[in-house]
Write a structure and sequence with these properties.
19 helices, 0% strand, Hydantoin permease
């Protein structure tokens, strides 16, 4: 059951942190709280992010870096609200929706959330399958099957404690980070242009507005909002209000670390595309496979391609694992029903396998999956902000008014941008 996403040793270590004076806080005290945001961060570096950031960098160079920075700040706020909800109530977002909404609304929520979960898996499976194809010459169908086997094998690690799974996923994120760090050192982006792109909001043309909206809208994934609240709900047992405040302080640090890593990786993807493609006049690199073929800093050198392929593979595998965990939380929370992980893994694989067999363009499928995800964002964001603003529900962890205002503003901005993305996609 995913409702007990913790280990006894983590809880025991956390209890020591509660009785340690602030001035004596050590890394050992903080570690029990580090992990949930690492799992959530995976959703922010999935293959869909690869596609949008590559296109942004190749078309506009460093001009849209500020969008990633803005999106990352928004992500920190939203994921903090999610973990705050789980800690304060001992319940996850789907469970609270079931408790406070009518049965018809809850069933609607469950159906749309399952569609979002399938769309999520579609992007993750396609990304990992494409990586297997680029690296080893496998067909996309063979790559998808292998992706399913590997992700289930990693999920099996839950038998040895959820902490083990957290460490594996954290290692995957670090591997992606190191891969892009190596590539950035090799490409040496223009530091002045990078700084300008970060601090000066700009839209070179009308399509840049659409692309920026897609980058921002696809950043906040509805399934990981549901999941993050579940990761915090029973992880640490707090005995009183002071313990809750302490735990939340450490969870905020966890969110800052996890979201910062995700943001830096997204920036690295855009920087790489800008330094390699935009600088060479290759302004129309919109697909992952095209970028892989052209990603050669020195003619005849294959190492950059291999590193890029491996990072894409790790991204697809890790985000697929997180997608499956989210699906379990969604089903358990909304309809109190559980199926074995292997069965959920098999069911959510089917749409991806069918689309791969049809031979559709991977770029079009990725864009389509992001549009589907866009529909699910308001359904997760609005109740999240509403619940975390209720004193009767949250106790001493209730949002301050300015936090609620920022949450509402973020929700409005994301919803408007996603409506724009959907409208644009339907008209094109």
């Amino acid at each position: 059951m995913l409702s007990a996403m913790s280990d006894d040793r983590v809880r025991l270590q956390a209890q020591k942190a509660f009785v340690t004076p602030k001035k004596q806080i050590s890394l050992k005290n903080i570690l029990p709280f580090i992990g949930p945001a690492m799992i959530a961060a995976v959703a922010y570096i999935d293959p869909g992010n690869f596609a949008t950031n590559i296109e942004a960098g190749s078309r506009y160079g460093y001009s849209l870096l500020w969008v990633i920075l803005f999106a990352n700040i928004m992500a920190m706020l939203i994921q903090t609200l999610s973990v705050r909800l789980g800690l304060a109530t001992g319940k996850n977002l789907p469970q609270l929706i079931r408790q406070h909404y009518s049965p018809k609304v809850v069933w609607f929520y469950w159906v749309q959330a399952e569609i979002v979960a399938i769309a999520t898996d579609l992007a993750e499976f396609l990304g990992a399958s494409l990586a297997f194809n680029l690296l080893f010459g496998m067909s996309l169908f063979e790559g998808a099957l292998l992706t399913g086997v590997i992700t289930y094998a990693v999920l099996y690690l839950q038998r040895y404690g959820f902490r083990t799974l957290e460490l594996v996923i954290a290692a995957m994120i670090m591997a992606v980070s190191l891969g892009f760090a190596f590539q950035l050192v090799s490409t040496q982006p223009d530091s002045h242009a990078v700084l300008q792109g970060l601090v000066i909001p700009q839209f070179p043309d009308s399509y840049a507005v659409y692309l920026a909206a897609g980058m921002l809208g696809a950043t906040v994934m509805p399934h990981v909002i549901y999941l993050h609240s579940a990761l915090a709900q029973n992880r640490i047992i707090t005995g009183n209000d002071a313990h809750r405040i302490t735990a939340m302080r450490y969870y905020r640090l966890d969110v800052f670390i996890g979201m910062s890593l995700a943001g830096l990786i997204n920036m690295a993807i855009l920087l790489l595309a800008a330094a390699v493609f935009f600088s060479r006049g290759e302004h129309n690199i919109a697909s992952i496979s095209d970028s892989y073929k052209l990603l050669t800093i020195v003619p005849g050198e294959t190492l950059p391609q291999i590193i890029f392929g491996v990072t894409l593979l790790i991204s697809g595998l890790s985000s697929s694992i997180v997608g499956t965990l989210s699906g379990q939380v969604i089903m358990q929370g909304f309809v109190q029903f559980t199926i074995p992980l292997w069965l959920r893994r098999a069911i959510t694989m089917v749409p991806a396998l069918v689309i791969i067999m049809l031979g559709l363009s991977e770029q079009k499928v990725l864009v389509f999956s992001q549009v589907i995800l866009s529909f699910g964002i308001p359904f997760a964001l609005i109740p999240l902000v509403y619940f975390t603003a209720k004193k009767s529900l949250m106790g001493n962890l209730v949002n301050q008014k300015w936090v609620t205002f920022c949450g509402v503003l973020s929700a409005v901005v994301i919803i408007i941008l996603n409506i724009y993305v959907i409208s644009y996609s339907l008209l094109v």
